Structure formats: structure tokens, C-alpha cells
Amino acid sequence: MGPLLQLLLRNGGFVTFLLVELGCFAIMVNFEDRHQEIWANTTGIFGGRALEKRQMAADYFSLYETADSLAHIVDSLQARLSNARQMQVPIRDTFYLVNFDSLSKTDSVRRKTIRPQYEFVTAKSIKNSIAGTNNWLIINRGSSDGLQPDMAVVSPEGIVGIVRHVGTNFSLVMSVLHRQAKISVALPNQKNAFGSLTWEGGNPNEMTLRYIPQHFIVQENEPVVTSGYSLMFPQGHPVGKVKGSPKPDPENPYFLEIKVSLHQDMATVRDVAVVRNLFKAELDSLQLKISNNER
Amino acid sequence: MNGNSITPHILRFIGLVAVQSLLLNQMTGSVGVYFNVLLYPLFILFLPLQMPTPFLVVLGFAVGFAVDAFVPSWGVHASAGAFSGFVRGLAFMPFAPKGGFSAKDPIFAPAHIGWQTFLQGAALFMAAHILWYFTFSYFAPVFGWEILKKTAAAWIFTMIFVGLYAMMLNPKK
Predict the structure, then answer these.
(1) Among the partner residues B74, B79, B89, nearest to A31 by beta-carbon distance
(2) A86: in domain
(3) How many interface pairs between A and B have CB atoms less than 8 angstroms apart?
(4) What is the pLDDT of residue B77?
(5) Minimum-distance CB partner of A28 among B52, B74, B140
(6) What percent of chain A has pLDDT over 90?
(7) Which site among B68, B71, B74 would you substitute to test the A interface, given the most A Cβ atoms closer than 10 Å to its Cβ?
(8) Where residue A264 sits, what CATH number does that domain have?
(9) Domain spans of chain B, in order of start
(10) How many structural domains is chain A composed of?
(11) CB hemisphere CA count around B122 (13 angstroms)
(12) pTM for this model (two decimals)
């Protein structure tokens, strides 16, 4: 206290000057309109810059989490894309089946037959519901990003839904937790026996798999993946696992009713990818011919 | 300071504030924007040379605040007055005799220190006061050139009035 008092006494003139000037400054910016305006603008500019710097610092410190999350998504999607590109190409002149994992390995004869079937457009879910009987999501991609109705939406963990309505920049996605959503899935441990997965309401982490014939002995915790028959979802994308023991379907006793626990928690879905089937138009036109022939 | 020595300062305070507010500030509006005369700092200039700086700062603030109340220009003259009180000692330092001012030089006036020293010291003191005043009056660095032009013009006009004041009233205490 003593040294501080001495300092004040020794620099009394300066301290008084500083205090009086601070008082004058306060009077100026409080009572003079012009000064008030200039002061407000100046503090606004510097305050804005300070906030911007703070946000940049905060973003910087969360970069690791963001990068980790993005890397996870990219890895997963690359794997899916790679799987989608892999095709078995029968070479007519021989008895061999050749697997190709890269387009660069094709020759002029095979190039026509080996093509990627799917493209992925990454997106973020900006609105989501799980509590209704029919649930929807909104994603931040639209027609300007090449989206069209009836494209599948997946996440690295599992399946999310199907694009139904497309705006210029946003799209409405019918969640898998929707009564009308029917996903064609398969059981890889049962020679890819396929059935239809639907949601019957209630538990948002559980769906029901039907149309697996009775003669398959399905075990609990068996994996469930997409079958690839729907034209929307690529083959082999993880969906979930069998929950409990399968029971005979009360509506159709020749088939099983299997409860499936979803890998993707629909309450936390955020980063997704929209799947574009590059041959959809061609496949649709072929299916139309089947329908026309059956009439 | 006894009662007799305070009276001239009180009278100077009242007289300078009245002249500044009722006459000189009105002339600025009618003569032109570059005609500015700031005479009230003479109150600070003529305060006793032995007065401690904190008192000078407070009295400088007081005279400036009185002028502000008449204009009204809240805080600008008060700030310049306090600044003048603070720098007065520095402005007079080059003109102080060896060993500093003594009791035989009660105030910085021509009667005690001579006309040349008075005008030199007053010129430096007034320049500091006017520059501070216009800087805070405009309050933005973008007006830098305008501040310098107005400071130069006001300094010339003010020094004429300072000379007239000293010649007519020739303050001794």
C-alpha cells in the first residue's frame, strides 16, 4: 500500500490528468451525439473483429473433431463407393470370372461393361423427427446439387431414408421411420436371403424384416445389409442386426417376422450421403417394360 | 494563496469564460469556420507558477467545463483544459531560468518574465491546447488534415488576442 501511495503522490499530476480525461471522455461519448456515433461505430468495428477472432480460435480448437468426423465419413463412403464399383465381369471367351476394383485396370473391351454404378453426395441433416408415426428429415442439398426424388440417403453407420421432394437447395427425406418406407435388405449369413424392412412405430431403433422364408435358420445378432434390389440403396450397406429370435409372421406363416436393431441411431443422425444410381433411368425403363408386359 | 491573491484568478475565470462563451464563440459562427479564438486557456496560463500539477489539471478542467456548459459542447473544452493544466509545466520548461521559476515570478506574465519569453511560452502552450481541442472536437483520425488546418488558423487568431489581452490588462498576479 505504501509504495502505491508514494507512486500516486509522485505522479499525482499524471494520475489526476488521466482520471479527469477519462471523465471527459465519458461525458463526450454520453452527451455528444457525434462523438457517441463515432465511438459506437469504432467499438462496433473492433468488437466485431474481436468476436470474429474469438470464433476463429474456437473453430481452430474444434478442427480436430471436425477433421476426424469428416475423415470417418470419407473413409466409409470411399469403401462403399469402391464396393459399388466392383463388378463381376464375365469374359465370354473364357470360363473365368474376373473381379475389377479400379476403372484404370479396364481395357478397351471391358471399359464398356465396367462402370461405377453409384455416386455419393454428402449432405447434412438440418431438421429431423423421430417421435411421429411418419417421420421426415430435411437435408441441405437440392436439385442444384444433382438430387432427384427416390434417391437413397445413407450414413456411415446405416440407412437414413429416401429423398421424396427436392427443392433448389434443400430436400425433404422420408425417414426409414415412416410407415411407407420399405427397404429391401438381405441377410449375408443366409446366402443373401432378402426381405422387406419396415417400421411399425414405437421404438425408433427397431424395424421389422418380413418375407424371409421359414426354412432359413436366422440367429440373433446376424448382420442385416441392403440387398441392392431396390435400385436406390447400394448392395451391402450396413443396416443393423437381428434382435431376438425370429418368429413366424402372423400374416403369412410361410415367412419369418424378424426384429432388426438399427445401427444408425436416428435421433443423432447428422452427416449423411445421398446415393445417386447412375443407371436409374435405364433400370426404371426396363422395369416399366416388365410392368407393361404383365398388364 | 491568500484571499487577495485568489481574487484576480476568480475574476479572470469569470471574465474569460464570459468573453469566450458570449463573444468569441459567437464570432466563429458569423466570421467563418476557420475563425476560432480560444482565450479561456489564459486562465490556466496565468495561474501561479508554483501551483502543483494536479490543481492545474482540476482547474483547467473546471474552466473548460464552464465554457462547455455555455456552448454546449460536453466535455471537449473540459478535456482540453485539463490537458493544458497537465502540460503547462512542460510548455514553460524551455523558458524557465536556471533552477526553475521562483517566488519572484508569481505568474507567467510579461510583467515578470518579459514579452519575448511570454509570447514564446504562450505560443507553445496555446498550440498544445488548440491541437488537443480540435483533435477531440473532431474525434476521428480521418479528419487529420482539417484538424491541422483549423489548429493553425485558430492558433494565429488566438495569439493575436493573447497579445491584446496582455497589453491591455498586463496581469501581474
Answers:
(1) B74
(2) no
(3) 66
(4) 93
(5) B74
(6) 29
(7) B74
(8) 2.40.10.340
(9) 3-169
(10) 1
(11) 31
(12) 0.49
